[in-house]
Every structure is written in C-alpha cells, then in structure tokens.
Amino acid sequence: MFQLIEPDIKIIPLKIWMARRIAAIHCQSFALDSWSYETFKDLLDNHHVSGWLIIVNCHVAGFLMIRCIEGEAEILTFAISPKWQRHRLGTALLKTLREWAQKNSVEAVFLEVAIDNVAALRLYHSQGFTSVGRRRDYYTYKDGSCVDAELMVLRFLASPTGFEPVLPP
Ligand SMILES: CC(C)(COP(=O)(O)OP(=O)(O)OC[C@H]1O[C@@H](n2cnc3c(N)ncnc32)[C@H](O)[C@@H]1OP(=O)(O)O)[C@@H](O)C(=O)NCCC(=O)NCCS
To answer: In the structure, which protein residues have their CB atom closer than 6 angstroms to any atom of ligand 1?
Structure first.
C-alpha cells in the first residue's frame, strides 16, 4: 500500500452525470455483484436518492449513495476503488454522511452489510453503527452462493444543539 502525503481530498454531491463513473468503481469493488450504469442512472434520477463522490488529487476514488425518506436514511451502496482503499477515504465519506444527517434532522441511518465483509463491518463499527438484526441469505452472488446480511443502524437524538449521534458506550 502506498502512502498519501498531504492529499487534496474533495467530497462533492453525487449528480446523475456521474453514473458511469460510479458504476465503474462499483464494478471494481464488488466483483461478484456489480450494478449497471442504468441502475445508477435510475437511482440518481430519484429525488430521495443522493450521496457523495470523493476525489483525491483529481482522481475519483469512491462514493457513498443513500436514500432518505421522512427522517430515515439508508446506505444503498458505498465503495472505495481498490487502489485507494485503506487511506481513510471510507471513513471520510461516513463522516460527511453523519454531518449531513445531523444537519438534516435525520433520526437514523440504516444499512445492510454481508457478514463476510470484514472490512466494511469493522469500518461501520468504528463509526458508531450497531447491529440490530440479521437477514438470512440476503445476498446472492453471481456464482449462486448466498450470504446473510447484518442490519446495522446509527441513531441520532434531538438535543438543544441539533441531532447528535447515539454512540455505543
Ligand atoms: C469497506 C470500504 C468502503 C472501506 O473503505 P476504506 O477507505 O478502505 O476504509 P478506511 O481506510 O476508512 O478504513 C477505516 C477502518 O475500517 C477497517 N478496514 C478497512 N479496510 C479493511 C480491511 N481490508 N480489512 C480489515 N479492516 C479494514 C479498519 O478498521 C480501518 O481502520 P485502520 O486502517 O486504522 O485499521 C472499502 O474496503 C470498499 O470499498 N470495499 C468494497 C465495497 C464494500 O464492501 N462496500 C461496503 C458495502 S456495505
């Protein structure tokens, strides 16, 4: 792994014209279950769907996509391109999500993650998400195998200074 020295990191809102770019990152990052350009285009056409792109030294390195309806948000998908992984870019996108959720009075952010995805599970735990359930055989990979999903949540409580995340003890 290379070291990023004083990287120029920009996080910008997702737009529909970015669909091809994020489909390419999704394909690199989820070899067994990639989503098409058309899927991303349709999702970004939905006014409940939004998210962020992360750019490092002018290279598109990853994205995080959410759907938010009436105070509840859900991470639809999230990936950092393999070349840029392990440089805290995923952490930076989750921090952006948390700040956005606090500003927009979101009460909870949910997500599903495959139980064999050690990297994502560790990242979500480190950012305060807690497990609230299990969905059996939730993901079917292209090779036909199935894996359970862990259902996780990060809740926010209204406080005099706004919505604060409820972090585990
Ligand atoms: C999961 C993913 C988004 C993490 O992004 P990232 O930018 O590499 O993560 P970060 O550098 O911010 O890592 C933060 C912490 O997460 C954990 N983590 C990240 N990658 C890990 C790995 N490969 N193995 C074990 N732990 C890992 C570590 O605790 C890490 O902290 P550390 O580096 O101090 O040990 C990235 O691996 C990815 O895109 N994977 C493929 C797609 C995917 O699984 N998306 C999530 C679907 S729910």
So the answer is: 29-30, 78-80, 85-91, 113, 117-120, 122-123, 126
